[in-house]
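Per-record layout

source: Schizophyllum amplum
name: C2H2-type domain-containing protein
length: 883
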Amino acid sequence: MNGASPLLLKSSSIYCNPASPCDADGNPIPAHQPPEPRHADTSSSDWAPYDSGIQFKIAEFLFKKVEMSQGDTTHLMDLWAAWNEHHFAQLGLNEEDIPPPPFAHHRDLHSTIDGTTVGDVPWQTFEASFPVSDLPIDGSVPSWQTAKYPIWYRDPQEVVKSLLDNPDFDGEFDYVPFQEYDASGHRHYRDFFSGNWAYRQCDIDSDGATFVPIILGSDKTTVSVATGNNEYYPLYLSIGNIHNNVRRAHRNGLIPIAFLAIPKSDRKHDNDIELKRFRHQLFHASLAAILQPLKSGMTVPEVLRCPDQHYRRCIYGIGPYIADYPEQVMLSGIVQGWCPKCTALPSDLDGKGGPRTQQFTDELVKLLDSKGLWEEYGINEHIVPFTNDFPRADIHELISFDLLHQLIKGTFKDHLVAWVGEYLVARYGEAEAKAIMDDIDRRIAAAPTFPGLRRFPHGRRFKQWTGDDSKALMKVYLPAIVDYVEDEVVQCLSAFLDFCYIARRSDISAHTLDQLNDALTRFHLHRQVFERAGVRDSISLPRQHSMVHYHWMIQEFGSPNGLCSSITESRHITAVKKPWRRSSRYKALGQMLVTNERLDKLSAARTDFESRGMLDRPLSKSKIALQPTVNDEGGDEEDEDDERDGQAVDDARFRGTVVLPLHHQPGYPLWAKELATHVEQPKLPELIRRFLFGQLNSDDRDPDAVALEDCPPLPRSPIHVYHSAAATFYAPSDISGVGGMRREHIRSTPSWRKEGPRRDVAFGVKDKDESGFRGLVVLRVMLLFSFVYAGKSYPCALVQWFSPVGDAPDHKTGMWIVKPDTTRGVRDVAVVHLNALIRCAQLLPVFGDMRMPIGFEHCYTYDCFQAFYVNKYADHHTNEIVF
């Protein structure tokens, strides 16, 4: 069904060499022989180092869930002990028989967590410094040349063993690369092992072993703008066998394995070539040293236990590296402004250029001097990539996608949005351009509430932009500039957004790649408008140029959403920023490392206890779908953030559902006529009767056309009203659970966050046999209610209907335009069964030439405009079902 995101059927797969299980010594075992139990010698009641499951859950709650401070933890335990003493003394217990609190104090809590043996990969350190032999003999020596630089790291071999031995990954883990085809014979690219690169590596010399690609990612991050030494440089590790959704969900699939050194000096040395060269060399030398324990396993397989409990012979290989462009320059040893993947000239990056390879670079180094390498091929001969120390590793091949920094932050916000501002100045003059940009901000602020949408109530004029801010602006920006810029500017941004949203899909087919190429062609064509307008003299920019390599990289590495830098960016929160906030801020790194280690031990302990059946796993889908939220049980619902109104659901994959909460809203009349008066919908009783006619009659008669007296009477049971319905659906391209499931709330409430009413718009099913928007209908939910008729419960929605304008999307924005259906100027309404709804939709106004009034409230947008764009950029699932 169109809106329900039908599950992809595996029609056929071609697998690489089989990775056959073996015993712990590497000897082959008979086919179908079950694995040895992971916990053969461990009792199902052994909670060590905890006394019980309750003590573990309390430890997890205090340290991981609420991140309670040390002082508060000790205070809580003191209160717990005092309460026990008071309570049990009243029961007549002797002092020695009174149970103690779960932990004596925070030190007891920490030492208990530290006693966890599973997932224990301790932090180690080594120091690096500027070579003594290169120090000047006389003269002053800058401080950076005499400093010692500590590098903290974990043994990557032990980290990889821990990842492989994680039973939580069972069923979400590939043992051999494969090529997947649908029933039409079209190739599909999804998880990392579906790409060509893993398939080739497996063919080289795996000899029946499980290939384990080592995925790396690094990115500097700042923890506070208010203090001095506030920059950290974490290095993360994952393995390519884990499915993309697991890596994105951070189910211990992406592990911080090092904090790299950041050499600093006085401002007068900022442009010191020697300092820059040392930073680059320190970076590569550190990576080579950290990853050295894996090197032997890249040629000689190691016998390791896997998530399915079987042992296999495993062989490692350096895999893709996730980094933004400045770091790609340093990683690949190229000159700033050149491409790390091809030899196209900086003056014409989208022109001719062959692929870069390390072999090609090595040959050029033999033939050319430093000047020739730098100017003719963009090669910095002073950088020797760390990959040179490892077999089968070519850094140019392994540079990964960077949707977040290169496209979303770089191309969209820093280039296109800025260029639109310059275009407005060139076209209208500075004063009028400022007025227009203020109105564009007010248009953006008028975007209706939508689950997961970060709103801009005061426009875009704030200092610190995050990746999430840029992603949020992408969703609502396009309609806001229509009619202020010429059509080709809108078409340029539309093509770029299409490219980004297609590239972000979790499942990319050969047909999808054709769409990607078409979007790129349109973008290259329409962006020339900025040159003609005088905004740009030329457009040859590394971040935009990276788009030409996406087709090839998708074929090599699978869907970009498994390797995007947003994964490492969000991991900064749990690995760097939150641990820093929990520290004393004095020499914080050591405290942050301990916090990371304890968090990993808690996660490993939970996985261990779950695998032994000692802890319940996440709720089943039937329970999840029926769970009411606190806000559904009554009240104004004012305390829930719009950005958090959509949730990942960790559950098995299934087709979507829309259900009402367990508890209805108080304060509403229970009978149809009185309820109609209360909600100001006088036709509600008639509409309920016509709805019942359609439900109870299987013929083709239109319920709206039959005489009202031929319709069933109103229900005799009470009618209950609700302010939301929970829609659960398969949306693997968005933030979702491991199974790709996501849940959001379709809301219809008279008061939302004390700002005014919220009546959400939703997609409904119109024609199951049509694809895209032609198979959908847009409905605005004015009331959610249910009643019982003839012993059967009917969950319903009172909706306004929106119909498309024309039979194709708007040629400028690429979005469908809809208008509300009306009769004599009044919007048409109808009652539909709740199962006709799929999920939330978002409509953005067609503003025309009107300017937005200052202070307009976004909660009235759906009431005040007469035509709307169906926002196909609201989120990635919407884009997939509407595109």
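summary: The longest strand covers residues 776-789. The first helix runs from residue 53 to 65.
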